[in-house]
Amino acid sequence: MKREYDFSKGARGKFYRKGAELRLPIYLDAKLQRKLEGLARKKGKDIGEVVNQLLRRDVAFIEELL
């Protein structure tokens, strides 16, 4: 890294977008991902749909316990 950077020609907020949503990348264990891909393929769904369904059920179950 340089000791000092010149930001004199920089523009504050150049990439700021009001109301933009942050989508977190989530990385699965390789073995789990293969399993989920197989399940999704059998159901004819996208892996994201399958993962979201599973997580919704888990969250509902946890909320019942609390």
What does this structure look like?
This protein is mainly α and about 70 residues long. It is elongated, with a radius of gyration of 21 Å. About 0% of the residues are buried. The mean pLDDT is about 95. The termini are far apart. The protein is built from two helices and no strands. Helix content is about 50%, strand content about 0%.
Briefly characterize the structure.
By secondary structure, the chain is mainly α. It has helices at 30-43, 47-65.
- Content-based structural category: mainly alpha
Query: Main sheet?
Result: none
Query: Ranges with pLDDT <50 over ≥5 residues?
Result: none
Order of helices and strands: HH
General shape: elongated
Strand tally: 0
Report the radius of gyration as a whole number of Å: 21 Å
Continuous helix count: 2
* Mean pLDDT score: 95
Distance between the termini: 49 Å
Helix share, percent:
40-55%
Proportion in β-strands: under 5%
Reconstruct the topology from this structure.
Layout lengths: L29 H14 L3 H19 L1
From the structure above, extract its key features.
66 residues, mainly alpha, 2 helices
